[in-house]
Amino acid sequence: MTQYVFVTGGVVSSLGKGIVVASIGRMLKSRGVSVGVMKLDPYLNVDPGTMSPYQHGEVYVTGDGSETDLDLGHYERFIDVELTAASNVTAGQIYSDVISRERNGRYLGGTIQTVPHVTNLIKERIHQLADETGADVVVVEVGGTVGDIEGLPFLEAIRQIRNDVGRDNASYVHLTLLPYLGSTHELKTKPTQHSVQALRGIGIQPDAIICRSDHEVNVGLREKISLYCDVPVEAVIGLETLDSVYAVPLRLEEQGFGDFLAERLGITNSPDLSAWSDMVDKLRDPKRSVRIAIVGKYVELPDAYLSVIEALRHAALAHDCEVKIDWIKAEDIEEEGADHLLNRASGIVVPGGFGERGIEGMIAAAHYARERGVPYLGLCLGMQVMVIEYARFVLGLEDANSSEFDPGSENQVIAYLPGQRELGATGGTMRLGLYPCALKPGSIAARAYDRDLVNERHRHRYELNNDYRDRLEKAGLISSGTAPDGSLVEISEVKDHLFMLGTQFHPEFASRPDRPHPLFREFVGAAVDTLREGAQHTMPLEDSAADDASSPSDVVARLGISR
Length: 563
Ligand code: GLN
What we know:
With 563 residues, the chain is an alpha/beta fold. The protein has 2 domains: 3-279, 3-Layer(aba) Sandwich (Rossmann fold); 286-419 and 497-547, Rossmann fold, CATH 3.40.50.880. The chain is 37% helix and 21% strand. It is built from 20 helices and 23 strands. Helix 1 (17-29) packs parallel to helix 3, helix 4 (91-103) packs across helix 5 (114-133) and helix 15 crosses helix 16 (381-393). The longest helix has 20 residues, at 114-133. The chain binds glutamine. Glutamine binds at residues 352-354, 380-381, 384, 404, 459-462.
């Protein structure tokens, strides 16, 4: 029978609940237990696919093509599981399901209510995940903060599950914040007390409380929280802001939280986090650093590129290296020029995106990378701008563009190909999820993967226009990955360039800390090589400790997400 761990949040949002859930998953898995994991999102959108990155950060795409919350990315990276649509449930999905059941007469004339109809559907989805995965333990994150109106049906549902499955099979973990008062130099527990009171008012008594804080949580504070919140002192865990999110499972384990949870669930195996711990040690002791520019539209909001940052970090680790990110707003390149903004970078990434804004700046970045021989990795939109650049400057098609950005251009080298999904509505028109890609022998892509065929995750509408494929290939833009029947270009790479490659898919979603994605690994490797050669556009080998790390390390040091 499946057991459940429910994780709620209190006091404020953005505490890094997703990282804690991912860490719990890793800690359980390290005890030889199979783990399922899911996020309950109390907002009314059906999925985050149509939400702005400003609202939501990155949309994480699972193998089955679901557009999900970015916390699922943390889960996949930490627990190394392949998730599906079943792992992200929103209030929007639940309510539309209830209403369509009601319209279809499924409730036989009954009055439809939050309890039991909405809560039953939530429970059904939780049990469904348990059935689908057959996991020993399912870890469930409840999005938002205790006290949110939208969250109530979800909290009510997880409260009921304790009775449905038995007390020994359901555990509750509450994550809170201990604010620090500078004037008196103390951490305060009152907001935690209030948040636990609110949770108990709903009928949930937490088994453990994890306290996020920017300062050490000493035993006196833990005793106080234990007393007021009725939780054993060994189950009050301090979680200070750490230098890397990957250190969180180790920090929690160190304080006995893994053992506490294991005992609570009757798991007797001891944990083995040695490989994970080695990985974190290596992360903390880079031999050099490499500077990569990310040229995008939402660079003031790194959460929009979370998986890209992580994939770069994993790739750098494989080269004993630390990555420093220069965040370059594509529109700034349009005004200030690529040379000025990109000359510090040893590699350039143009990540995915939608809409016209900043496109010319991204094309200029691709132009700069091609002309200067700087390693370039284009992710989806980044491949499309690379193709546009090539068509404009190598084929001489001055107005080359994508039909997404200039429907009037004569040369739509990126286009919505006939026979694909109907264009028009905002939902349901994208190529989503895993599609196979055959690799061209001898290409950089084939060498990186060391495979003939791969499956990669997609999220886009437009494709390289096959009408231009021959001309582009003859001019040196190799189609190094295609759909197995050859009908679509999946990877383009520039011939005789150290590394200039774009993918129509999103390799960043498949990267793991201990298994970097091959294309990211080769890209960062190429950037490191340019450092070694001391090429003009690179900085000399940097002493990482002495470097004036800019925003990206702050992003990664910070636990969690900006909501
Ligand atoms: N806007 C482009 C398309 O829809 C690229 C999408 C992306 O980068 N994910 O094809």
